[in-house]
Amino acid sequence: MVSHQLIGAEVSLYTGKLRCYLKYKSIPFEEVTASREVFQNVIIPRTGVRYIPVLISDDDKAIQDTTEIIDFLEKRYPEASVYPRTPKQNLVSLLLETYGDEWLVIPAMHYRWNIDENRNFAIGEFGRTSAPHASKEEQMAIGQQTARPFAGALPMLGVKDDIVPAIEKSYLSLLADLDRHFAVYPFLLGSRPSIGDFGLIGPLCAHLYRDPYSGRLMEAQAPNVVAWVKRMIEPAPLSGEFLADDEVPDTLYPVLQRMLEEQGPVIRQTMEQVGNWQGGDQIDRAIGEVGFTIEGVSGTRLTFPYMQWMWQRCHDFYTSLEGEEKRRVNGMLDAISGLEELLEQPVARRIHRVENKMRVDKAQ
Ligand SMILES: N[C@@H](CCC(=O)N[C@@H](CS)C(=O)NCC(=O)O)C(=O)O
């Protein structure tokens, strides 16, 4: 039987997200290492971009972007959907996917590239991925090269020396909040993982659990998060249910509040800057600079329109709600100050993904 191919790497954040999803859904796949040859022969010609993971479906479609891949597979494998059917839970799971995918990259990248032990491990892993058959020494040399753009991306993501203590403080508080949650619940919303769990597992597993220094830190600080990571990487396929009556546990509110305080202003500024974009309908990967605050320390990073594309999923779902459902969701949002206003904010110019490039609507 022809199965799907997951092209990626163990060291890759977004590959980790997709691998956990495929395993939970019991979708047959074989994993192909994204070596230099695979980049040249498959990834670049088939997708036009240099990102992993890539799914080659059993009918030979090549798809990049974990969110698009998961949505593509959810249609073909609807059993045990990772999207809750009820409004509060679905909104929370979309929000936490956006948080994991697009914001927790900050601690994930900080710990990987600023801590020597992690950095050396990651360089070896980069080399092993690019040249699986080379010697250890050659892999280290190749890893130094291939890792350079990733390590060099820290300032663009907002990871600069003066804000590092705040990034660490925030991450440790997040771990404490999640630890309290996972002491009670197997996944974010019950005994079934949602798209929010898959969003969080990328940074929390591929970097923050698997990199050696970070893994010890997580074991020491948050054993219940470690247990969740293990459930995510070796799931009981297709099992579990979301909590009854659209319940969202109170233990998730501090996590959502942290997301709103740190990532919320970045989402708002990104929408403004995308609205003012002066170029053509194909928009750049980064278009300017935004300010943000973590634990009272301010920083700047580049503006990534992709984050708006993720946010649109939250906004669209929220604004599609009516009547009683909207009232119930707003009742929950009362506990997270500022979130309702952000979800209500109109998207000035929408971002679309077309053949793995981002397009933007014309200015009004
Ligand atoms: N939103 C994309 C992100 C993919 C992504 O950024 N992957 C990383 C590896 S974990 C990558 O290929 N980065 C290359 C680059 O940033 O140029 C997804 O969900 O697939």
Question: What does the model show?
Answer:
The protein has 364 residues and is α+β, with helices and mostly antiparallel strands. It has a domain at 4-76: Glutaredoxin (3-Layer(aba) Sandwich), CATH 3.40.30.10. It is built from 16 helices and 8 strands. The strands form 3 sheets. The protein has a 4-stranded mixed sheet, with helices on both faces. The chain has a two-stranded antiparallel ribbon with strand order 5-6. Strand 5 and strand 6 (297-302) form a beta hairpin. Helix 4 packs parallel to helix 10 (195-207), helix 4 packs antiparallel against helix 14 and helix 13 crosses helix 14 (305-320). It is globular and about 60 Å long. The relative contact order is 0.13. The mean pLDDT is 97. The structure holds glutathione. Residues 12-14, 50-52, 65-67 line the site of glutathione.
Largest sheet: 4 strands, mixed
The whole-number mean of residue pLDDT values reads 97
List of distinct ligands in this structure: glutathione
Write the CATH homologous superfamily of the domain at 4-76: Glutaredoxin
What is the CATH-assigned architecture of the domain at 4-76? 3-Layer(aba) Sandwich
| String of helices and strands | EHEHEEHHHHHHHHHHHEEHHHEE
Beta-strand content bin: 5-15%
Q: Which structural class do you get from the secondary structure elements?
A: alpha+beta
Number of helices: 16
Which residues sit in consecutive blocks of at least 5 with pLDDT less than 50?
none
Shape: globular
Say what the CATH topology of the domain at 4-76 is: Glutaredoxin
